[in-house]
Amino acid sequence: MSDRPGFPTSIGTSNTTSITLLGHDLAGELMGKVGFAELAYWLMTLRRPTPGELRVFETVLVTLADHGFTPTAIAARLTYVSAPEALQGAVAAGLLGGGSRFLGVTEDAGRFLAAALREAQRQPQSDAEFDEMARVAVARCRDEKRLVPGLGHPVHKDGDPRTPVLIRIATEAGQHGPHLRLFEAIGRVHPEILGRTLPLNGAGVCGAALADAGLPPELLRGVALLARTAGLLGHLAEEMRRPVARAIYDAVDRNVDYIAPEG
Asked: Phi/psi at 154 (nearest 5 deg)?
């Protein structure tokens, strides 16, 4: 019996002549033959996605890549102007802002929907049954004074343009499952419980779609961050070509209303 410690992994390994990834030779079997989105899905689930799952996964990556000058993009640009020699720091600064208000909603919605489905005594089949499950879930959030993940958007007050498109693509890809159906039901019933109508936002529908496409809810924030990494790189490349971060800094710094501390 060997006393050598073991560190098992099914992801990858290498020796002097080869690199093995997911049980395949990287150079001979994967490079030029497997797309990045397919590989990312495969790495997370240890199985290759079906064509439908891959279509939804790629659509989500496009959906979440960028949303303009969000706090994540501004943080990345400001970090770059402070430390232009450390691109990785600027990307990391943007990713660190992926939380309950931006990007993290993808995971929050996925977890919320999965928990509601898990707690159900039986799997709903009809829209009416999904509506009733949605009423229970939304009412619980209301009673506990919690936000319903995936409801509302600071810009798209009258409807997030991403939501119906992703639902349509998931349906075409054969991936319109219980998480999306429950999410749609929340959209139908929440006004009667909350007393106001809010849009189903893009981050939330991405969480529902990813859960239906076979990804575990606890990994969904990682998918959102993977998508936003591309967007942040775009912002940083633009910052190099046409900088604005210094102007953002100056606008804040030159317009400070200093208030002396009391006492």
From this structure: -70, -20
Per the listing, tokens 């009667």 go with 192
Is the Cβ–Cβ distance between 238 and 200 less than 8 Å?
no
Nearest CA-CA partner of 24 in 55, 48, 60, 49: 48
pLDDT per residue over 33-78, tens digit each? 999 999 999 999 999 999 999 999 999 999 999 999 999 999 999 9
The two structure tokens encoding residue 187: 């959209």
- Burial degree of 68 (CB within 10 A; 0-12, 13-18, 19+): exposed
User: Looking only at Cα atoms, what is the longest distance across the chain?
Assistant: 71
Based on the fold, state whether residues 116 and 191 are members of the same structural domain: yes
Q: For residue 209, what is the enclosing H or E element?
A: helix 202-212
**CA 51 – CA 53 distance, rounded (Å):** 6
On whether residue 52 sits in a domain, the answer given is yes
Tell if the pTM clears 0.85, that is, is over it.
yes
Range of the domain at 75: 36-100+220-248
Number of domains in the chain: 2
Token look-up 């209301």 returns 142
The whole-angstrom separation of Cα 169 and Cα 171 is 5
**CA torsion through residues 174, 180, 185, 191, sign:** negative
Each residue's pLDDT tens digit, 83-111: 999 999 999 999 998 877 777 899 999 99
